[in-house]
Amino acid sequence: MLLTLIGGIGIFLVGMALLTEGLKTAAGSALREVLRRFTGNRFAAVASGAAITALVQSSSATTLATIGFVSAGLLSFQGAVGVIFGANLGTTSTGWLVSTIGLKVSVSEWTLPLIGAGALFWLLAPGRRGAAGQALAGFGLIFVGIGTLQEGMGGLAERIDPGSFAGGGIGARFLLVGIGVVMTVVMQSSSAAIATTLAAVDSGAISLEEAAALAIGQNLGTTVTAGIAAIGATTAAKRTALAHVLFNAVTAVVALAALPAFVEAAEDTTGEGDPAMALAAFHTLFNLVGVVLLLPVLGTFAGVVARLVPERGPRYLADLDDAVATVPDLAIDAARRAAAAIGQAMLYAAADLARGVPPRATAEAAAAIEPLTRFIERVDPGSDPATRQQYASLLHAVDHLHRLAGLVAERRPPLVPAAVFPRRSAMLAAQLESLAAAFGDAGQLRAVLPETAEAARRFAHWRESRRRRLINEAAAPRAAPGVVETVAQDVRAWRRRLFGAPGPRPPETAATPPQPGLVERLDTMLWMARVVYHGWRLAAHLDAIASGERAAAAPPEPD
After folding, report:
1. 395 domain residue, yes or no
2. Domain span at residue 321?
3. Is residue 553 part of a domain?
4. Helices (H), 309-441
5. Per residue in 410-458, pLDDT tens?
C-alpha cells in the first residue's frame, strides 16, 4: 500500500513537471506578453494571474515571470501583488481537474495512448511541437498517477482511525494543518499534495473537514518553498515571496477560524454526496475570500511589504536572481538591462576622459561585470532559435562591455585625448555622451545607432590615416644638428647687419608642458577609435536583444 502511494505521488509529480515545462516552452514568450498587457489594474492583474496559473498548472511559473517584470519596471509591485493573488486562486484549478475528471472518469483506455503519442512528439518533433508533445505526455501521466493514488488510498482507509481527529478540536485542526504543510514541503508541489488529499477523501480514508484542514496546510506550505527560494535573492524576489507568504497566511487564518462554515458552504455548492468536489470547492472558496478581503486594500498591502523589505544591494545587479535565471526570456532581459546600465556608466566616464576632466566613478559598475557574466553562464537558452539568437547577442554585448571597461580603466591623466587631439576629443566626448544617454530607452538607442556606427567608421579612418602620416614624418630624413646650428648663426648675423643688434631674448618659461611623443600619440588615437567602436557594438547587440533581430555585421576592432 505504502509503495503504491509513493509510486502514485511520483508519477503525478513527473506528469506535473512535464506538463508545466512543456506548456512554458510551447507558449514561448506568451506568458510574458499576457502579463505585460493585462495587468493594468488590480482586477486585471488578479484575472491574469489566475488564468496563467490555471493554464500552465504552476503558480511557480507565474511567480517567476512576475518577479522578472517587477525587476524590469514593466509591472509595478502593486500589480505584481495582484498577480500573486490570482496565482493562488488559479492553482486551485488542479483540485477541480482531479475531482471532476481524475476521480470520476475511467481514463485507463486513453491515458496510455496519450502518453505514447506525446512522448513520440517530444522526442521526434523539433521546437514547440516537441514541447507540446511533452505537455501531452505529462497530462496523461497526471491521470495515471491519480489512478495509482486511488488504488493506494483504498487500503489506507482501513488503517487510519478517523476518531483520532474527531470532534473538530482546535488541536486536531492545527495538527492537520501542520501535516498539510509538511506534505507540500516534502512533495515540493501543492498540486500533488492536494491530489493526494482528494484521493484520500474520495476513498473515505478521511472526512471532508479533516481534508479541508489538510488543504489549508497545503496551501500554506507553498510559502515555505517560496521563502527558501527568496533567500539571497533580489529585493523584487523577496518582496514577491513575502506577499505570497502574507496572503496565504491571512487566508489560512480566516479559513481555519471559520472552517465549519466554509465546509458547509462547499457542500451546499457541490452537494453532500461528493466529498472530493466539495474539497475542490472549499480550496477555491477560501482563496477567493482571501482575494476579496485583500484586493480592496491592495495598495496598503503592497506598501507594507515594500517597507518590510527595503531596497538593498548593488543597483546594477538588482534584477539578477537565481530564480529568474531559470526562465531564459526573463533572464536574458534582466541581463540586458544590467549590461545597459553598466555600459552607460562606462560611456559617461570615457566621455569625461576624452574631455580631460576627472571621470565619473565607475568602481561599482566595473565590479558588477563579473557577477553579470556568472549570471549569464547559468542561463540555459534552450532549443528555441529566437532565444538562442538573443543569448548569443548577450554574450557579444558582455564581451564588448568587458573591453570598454578595460579601456576606461587604462586611460588616466595626463595622457588624455584632450591634451593631444583637442578637436577630435571634443567630438568623441559628444558622441559618447549621446550614446550613453540613449542606453536607458530601447527606442532611443535604436535611433542613435546609425550615427554611432558612422562615428566609429570615421574615427577608425581618421586614426589610420593620421597614424600613417605620423609614422612617415618620424621616418623622414632630418638635417644634422651641426648644420642646423650653422644655419641659425648665419640667420642671426644677417639680421644684425640688417636691423642692428637684437634685443634681449625673452626668458624661457619652465612651465611649458612637454609635447607627447610619437608613441603617446599613436596610443591615444588607438584608444579613441576603440572606445567608440566598442560602445557602438555594445549598443548594437543590446538593441538586437530588445528587438529580437540579429545585430548587423561589423568590421574588426581597430588594432
Report:
1. yes
2. 317-474+517-547
3. no
4. 322-325, 328-355, 363-378, 385-410, 422-438
5. 865 445 677 778 899 999 999 999 999 999 888 889 999 999 999 999 9
